[in-house]
Amino acid sequence: MKISAFVLLFNVVFAVSPVRAADAVVGSVKSATGRTVARRGTDTITITGGTHLLLNDTLQTGADGRLGAILQDGTRVSLGPNSELKIDRFVYDPSGAKFGLLLQLVHGALAYVSGRIAQFAPQSVSVETPVGVLGLRGTHFAVSLDGN
């Protein structure tokens, strides 16, 4: 009887699944116009101002789409039309001296302004593209990639 009660209590306490690392909120959208969506696993959600961004989100804009977002360390990213960007890694833990930011730009236009991760550990920030990796050594940059 005691074991059954413990199992029942365990199931009730842990029935609400904890937030997984992959579900961690890493930032939010400040502005979005036109067609802007985020792919989260198998789901596709429409992005609007205020939408929370999660680790592993893939952001996509259509021909009329643009979006601006701020990550939790203050990093600012903007996407132009016909762009696709994945938030592959985001680690911001100043008390533990752990930092990391990896963005993957598949195609389109990206404007980037550094946040605190780049202040503390610039070597831990990079943007991967199909043609190479951009390492951060300054505070801002812009890149545009043709879909081909």
Number of helices: 2
Tell me the helix content. Answer: 10-25%
Structural class, judged by helices and strands?
A: mainly beta
Q: How do the helices and strands follow one another from N- to C-terminus?
A: HEEEEEEEEEHEEE
Sheet with the most strands, sense and barrel status: 12 strands, mixed
Overall strand count: 12
Q: Which key phrases capture this entry?
A:
148 residues; twelve-stranded mixed β-sheet; 2 helices; globular; disordered N terminus
Description:
With 148 residues, the protein is mainly beta. It has one domain (21-145). The chain has two helices and twelve strands, in the order αβββββββββαβββ. It has helices spanning 2-13, 116-120; strands spanning 25-33, 36-40, 43-46, 52-54, 58-61, 66-71, 76-79, 84-93, 98-113, 125-129, 132-135, 140-145. Strands 1, 2, 3, 4, 5, 6, 7, 8, 9, 10, 11 and 12 form a twelve-stranded mixed β-sheet that branches. Strand 8 (84-93) and strand 9 (98-113) form a beta hairpin. The longest helix has 12 residues, at 2-13. It is globular, with a radius of gyration of 18 Å. The termini are far apart. The model is unreliable at 1-21 (pLDDT under 50).
